Amino acid sequence: MKDNEDGLVQFFETVIEQTQVNPTKVIGWIINDLLALLKQNNLRVNQSSISPSALSELLNLLETGFISSSAAKQVGKHQFIF
């Protein structure tokens, strides 16, 4: 995870500012999903194609029940590819 630390705190703080989702849940999404995608592609957080705003919107949709967790993960992967 050392290689991904550039911009990680700022990314997290920006997501927290833009969503009502519990910070613990945000941390889980960043660590388990975003960092895993970045690691697979040898990228750092500041090189991510998923912006903090995009992750915030995705988590807000999940939190309101508009989409399921599995759908949110698929959308996140799709956003990462493009």
UniProtKB/TrEMBL annotation:
Q: Does the keyword Hydrolase apply?
A: no
For the biological process aspect of GO, one term held by this record is: glutaminyl-tRNAGln biosynthesis via transamidation
| One Pfam assignment | GatB_Yqey
Q: Does the keyword Nucleotide-binding apply?
A: yes
InterPro entries membership: Asn/Gln-tRNA_amidoTrfase_suB/E, Asn/Gln_amidotransferase, Asn/Gln_tRNA_amidoTrase-B-like
Give the record's keywords alphabetically: ATP-binding, Ligase, Nucleotide-binding, Protein biosynthesis
Q: A Gene Ontology MF term for this entry?
A: glutaminyl-tRNA synthase (glutamine-hydrolyzing) activity
- Every copy of the Asn/Gln amidotransferase domain together lies at 10-75
In terms of superkingdom, the source organism counts as: Eukaryota
One cellular component term (GO) for this entry is:
mitochondrion
Q: What is this protein called?
A: Asn/Gln amidotransferase domain-containing protein
> Which species is this record about?
Scyliorhinus torazame (Cloudy catshark)
